[in-house]
Amino acid sequence: MYVQNAEAPPRKPVTVPSLHVMKAAGQRIVMLTAYDTSFAWHLENAGVDIALVGDSLGMVVQGHSSTLPVTLDQMVYHTSAVARGLSATMLVADLPFMADRDTAHAMAAAARLVGEAGAAMVKIEGAAPHVLEIIDVLTARAIPVCAHLGLTPQSVHKFGGFRIQGRDEAAADRILAEALAVQAAGAALLVLEGVPTGLGERVTGALQIPVIGIGAGPHCDGQVLVIHDMLGITPGKRPKFSKDFLAGNGSVSAAIGAYAADVRSGAFPGPEHCFS
């Protein structure tokens, strides 16, 4: 479970209902990844709404070329570490590759991430029939689920690389239909990654649940970035949809604060971070 961060400014815990209130009020939601207690502490103190322990740790922490090698034990370890740095910020954890191979495995993995590691929500990629069943089963057992559509990193081999999705009309219509399907299955939140700005706007307008964009344009209900990208410390080329907030801000805390402020004001993402 969460522990109180004594130095964080007091604020009400972010919950599933409060995220839905934020969408209804047009208040943009701030999400960032975190993989350890120290970065979690910075997110908490900056007032970030959601900390995501993503399987992106396989790339930015472990040095792999994809998220696929990340194990459930590793996700539990990193989620537990992040939980110890949070109090009000909501904690979301990824179901790693093949944890969703069937309902039983998904339930067991989610139980560990929530019950053992302290997550408040689990994230699952795609909208295949078995994924929709898993979303339904988990939400029926009071485990909130965040769906993930568009450029889903666990499908890297199917996509032939990390490629922007939904650029033609048929693909865009399919992603919109998938978004409606995961919502109907019970998802409380949707991460939409790597799609054209127009599609991000369509999906956000069509759904009642909040849509968090990453390379999905400025019209989403909120934004998420991998913290290493946001700080400009990822080795190699930074993704087009990211921005180095550490440059000119002088410290990690100031960079995270600037990111949160720009998301809430709508200054980020700008046109240079979007896809057509």
Automatic annotation (TrEMBL):
Q: Where does Mg(2+) bind?
A: D55, D94, E125
The note on cofactor binding and number reads: Binds 1 Mg(2+) ion per subunit.
**Which major enzyme category is it?**
transferase
One GO term under biological process is: methylation
Cofactor requirement: Mg(2+)
Source organism's superkingdom? Bacteria
Give EC number(s), comma-separated.
2.1.2.11
Predominant location = cytoplasm
Record-given protein name: 3-methyl-2-oxobutanoate hydroxymethyltransferase
